[in-house]
């Protein structure tokens, strides 16, 4: 879904316009989104439930959905809903949004017209195999520069800061075998103290969290690399057994890998 020229910076850059006839409702409360997403509302209205808040959207609004977040959305068509989404994912080492407490949020739409023109520029050149692919990349970073300087980032606790080396390592090495001892050493904590703080912050153990991140990255691969078989994706993400991968995937995402791959909805 992205030309090789841009892979030095991003693992995904995809601009798609969606049209929904009639009212629709989607529940992603158990399916963390596999990538960052910007949704530009063109027609219709929507209610997004996230972060224990209700976000109301109308034409001219822009919604930001950070990678790995969950939410519910209701689309209200009159007579249809039209929104244009920009799906993107940075390489781990280049993701300035990674490991930060960023909620689903509506962004400043003062420059909607100019921003949408940049989105259309991405759509025009995103699959180019010539130097025009740089035009898509340029438009993307202009959008980032204009929008993300005003993004709301919730305060990170002292415990979260102490655990950042572990979070960063898991994000970049999720397909490898990882031990609690190794992660604790990265954070200069004893294994018992590290385990306690980690579960306090995330609600799950470090290994369960690692599996969760692995599944989320596999989910992204399922959607964007449809030429790869489920077995190949499982192996790429460190699973020897495809059956075990499918079991973990369904538990984490609420659907089998095949069902998830066949979805036509991104937001």
Summarize the amount of helix as a percent range: 40-55%
**Radius of gyration using CA atoms only:** 19 Å
- SSE string, helices as H and strands as E: EEEEEEEEEHHHHHHHHH
What is the overall silhouette?
Answer: globular
List keywords for this structure.
9 helices, five-stranded antiparallel beta sheet, globular
3D architecture notes:
This protein is α+β, with helices and mostly antiparallel strands and 267 residues long. 40% of the residues lie in helices and 22% in strands. It is built from 9 helices and 9 strands. The protein has helices spanning 112-125, 133-147, 158-173, 180-186, 191-202, 206-224, 230-236, 242-253, 257-261, and strands at residues 10-21, 24-27, 36-43, 45-50, 53-58, 62-65, 72-76, 80-90, 105-107. The chain has a 5-stranded antiparallel beta sheet, covered by helices on one side. The protein has a 4-stranded antiparallel beta sheet with strand order 2-7-4-5, with no helix packed on it. A hairpin with a 2-residue loop joins strand 4 (45-50) and strand 5. Helix 1 runs antiparallel to helix 2, helix 4 crosses helix 5 and helix 6 packs across helix 8 (242-253). The chain is globular. The chain starts with 9 loop residues before the first strand and ends in a 6-residue tail after the last helix. Mean pLDDT is 86; it is low at 1-6.
């Amino acid at each position: 879904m992205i030309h090789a020229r841009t892979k030095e910076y991003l693992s995904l850059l995809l601009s798609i316009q969606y049209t929904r006839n009639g009212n629709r409702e989607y529940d992603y409360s158990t399916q963390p989104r596999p990538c960052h997403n910007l949704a530009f509302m063109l027609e219709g209205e929507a209610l997004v439930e996230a972060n224990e808040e209700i976000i109301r959207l109308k034409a001219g609004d822009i919604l930001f959905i950070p990678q790995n977040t969950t939410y519910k959305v209701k689309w209200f068509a009159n007579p249809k809903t039209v929104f244009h989404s920009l799906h993107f994912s940075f390489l781990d080492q280049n993701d300035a949004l990674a490991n930060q407490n960023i909620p689903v949020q509506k962004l400043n739409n003062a420059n909607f017209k100019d921003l949408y023109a940049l989105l259309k520029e991405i759509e025009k050149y995103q699959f180019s195999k010539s130097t025009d692919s740089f035009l898509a990349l340029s438009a993307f970073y202009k959008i980032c520069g204009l929008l993300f300087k005003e993004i709301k980032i919730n305060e990170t606790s002292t415990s979260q800061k102490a655990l950042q080396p572990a979070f960063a390592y898991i994000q970049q090495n999720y397909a490898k075998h990882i031990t609690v001892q190794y992660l604790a050493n990265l954070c200069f904590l004893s294994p018992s103290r590290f385990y306690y703080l980690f579960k306090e912050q995330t609600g799950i153990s470090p290994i369960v969290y690692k599996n969760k991140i692995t599944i989320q990255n596999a989910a992204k691969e399922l959607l964007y690399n449809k030429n790869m078989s489920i077995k190949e994706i499982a192996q790429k993400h460190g699973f020897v057994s495809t059956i075990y991968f499918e079991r973990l995937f369904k538990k984490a995402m609420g659907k089998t890998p095949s069902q998830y791959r066949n979805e036509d909805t991104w937001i």
